[in-house]
UniProtKB/TrEMBL annotation:
InterPro entries: LTXXQ
Entry's Gene Ontology cellular component terms: periplasmic space
Pfam family, one: LTXXQ
Name of this protein: Spy/CpxP family protein refolding chaperone
């Protein structure tokens, strides 16, 4: 159970880390897709679009699989996991921010505020949608 929880914690943290990473060619940078990956591969525009599409599908599938297993956890473990993920996210955020110059930190902070606003809007939309679906049924 401990190994499963560790794997799930890591898997759940990946989207947060991807969001916090700088953008390149319209997508997040990852260690295996560095800043010059598209340039190094000399991909056409169509290939880049298809690559992004496939990576998006992979991320969606990853989230669905993770959610399926997370739904099986007892509520106490879900809350503990949520707290630990938030702590890890905050530490990662601080580490990333500490690498930046004051000007970059300002831009980073602005970007984080925008991302938080988007997350809040999405949460509000999902709540509205769930309420609407509940009334319809």
């Amino acid at each position: 159970m401990r190994k499963t929880l560790t794997v799930l914690l890591f898997a759940a943290a990946l989207p947060t880390l991807a969001i916090a990473m700088p953008m390149d060619e319209g997508g997040p940078r990852h260690h295996d897709r560095g800043p010059g990956m598209f340039k190094e591969l000399n991909l056409s525009k169509e290939q880049r679009q298809e690559f992004r599409k496939l990576m998006g599908e992979q991320m969606k599938s990853h989230r669905e699989i993770t959610k399926r297993y997370l739904d099986k956890l007892p509520e106490a473990e879900k809350q503990a996991m949520k707290k630990e993920l938030e702590t890890a996210r905050a530490a990662q955020h601080k580490a990333l921010r500490d690498l930046l110059t004051p000007e970059q930190q300002k831009a980073f902070d602005e970007h984080q505020k925008k991302m938080e606003a988007r997350r809040a809007e999405m949460a509000e939309f999902k709540a509205w949608k769930a309420e609407k679906e509940a009334k319809a049924n």
